[in-house]
Amino acid sequence: MMMMIFFTKFMIFPHLIFFSIFPLFIYDFFIIWFSMEILNFLFIFYLNMNLKYKKIIFLYFLIQILSSFLLLISIILNNFLTTNNLISILMTMSLMMKLSLPPFHLWLPIMSKFLTWNSMFFILTFQKISPFYMLSLLNQNLFIIYMTIFLCSLIPPMMTFNMNNLKIIISYSSINQSSWMIFLIYLKNIIWMKYFMLYLFILWMLTFLIYFFKIFKNFSLSKNFMYNLLIYMFLFNLSGLPPFTFFYLKWYSIFIFMNYSNLFLIFILMMTSSFFMLFIYLNLSINIMYLFSMNSKLIKFNIKNNLTFMPFLIMSLLMSMIIYMI
């Protein structure tokens, strides 16, 4: 058991991070594709060590193999043929499958119910870096982009309404956040990287707290009020509630969108969808607070808990501000 933990921490994790970031320095589609395949097999190996329900790993394997095959075919055709709109559409659709974007999104919510919080974090962040970057290098088809943004804005609020499973809500929230990144990528604005970095950091802190302090086990909070307060802060930040950092980055993105009047309807839809997702997060938080108040005694504060809590609070505030100011 100790050997497995050691191997995971010091062998798998560093390579997962390396092969996620490495494509950002490459412009060749084939090398990016090759690094994504190495990353996929490393992640499948990691899932195999951590998941008891092996059928989910096979589902992930099938999705990635199919999307990788389509992507490889489109890259080969793109190298041997002149620029073709059909090839660009094929590449975009294969990347959409990897990113779990509608209408190829159902595999992610199904998987999320069985994943650990560490696996959830990797599949929603590091696994998406290369496909998003590759998407930014393509000349996207306008209709495909519009339809993707439309579905990413419409489906998550509908599927998560009155849902209490936090993993499924976060997976659909990731799909909803993808609409903002795709829009920024379409406008050829480098701000999408800052948006993704901030999302990655917030999700990392949230999943780390849940995993490390065993919060939300059987849909219950920690007995420590300070940890629960920190969880609420990251949930509200992830939802884009003011005055948290993610809200200001969305606000900045809105000013960018407003310069393109022909995209006004898409922009309104994205704003409406964000408000619905904010309501869903608030509704979930209120339900959890109610359950916590019903099952807990008088809150006790002590110096030890506060000393443990303060580094997380300070680090989260500083890192959020640094990413926003880059």
From TrEMBL:
UniProt-annotated location(s): Mitochondrion inner membrane
Reaction(s) catalysed by this chain's protein: a ubiquinone + NADH + 5 H(+)(in) = a ubiquinol + NAD(+) + 4 H(+)(out)
Enzyme class: translocase
Keyword Translocase in annotation: yes
EC number(s) reported in the record: 7.1.1.2
InterPro entries: Complex_I_Subunit_2, ND/Mrp_TM
GO biological process, one term: mitochondrial electron transport, NADH to ubiquinone
Cellular component per GO, a single term: mitochondrial inner membrane
Domain NADH:quinone oxidoreductase/Mrp antiporter transmembrane: 30-273
UniProt GO molecular function: NADH dehydrogenase (ubiquinone) activity
Keywords, in A-Z order: Electron transport, Membrane, Mitochondrion, Mitochondrion inner membrane, NAD, Respiratory chain, Translocase, Transmembrane, Transmembrane helix, Transport, Ubiquinone
Transmembrane segments: 7-25, 31-49, 56-80, 86-108, 115-136, 142-161, 168-186, 192-213, 225-251, 263-286, 307-325
UniProt membrane topology term: Multi-pass membrane protein
PANTHER family assigned to the protein according to its UniProt record, in alphabetical order: NADH-UBIQUINONE OXIDOREDUCTASE CHAIN 2
Family as reported in the entry's similarity comment: Belongs to the complex I subunit 2 family.
Function summary: Core subunit of the mitochondrial membrane respiratory chain NADH dehydrogenase (Complex I) that is believed to belong to the minimal assembly required for catalysis. Complex I functions in the transfer of electrons from NADH to the respiratory chain. The immediate electron acceptor for the enzyme is believed to be ubiquinone.
Protein name as annotated: NADH-ubiquinone oxidoreductase chain 2
Gene name linked to the record: nad2
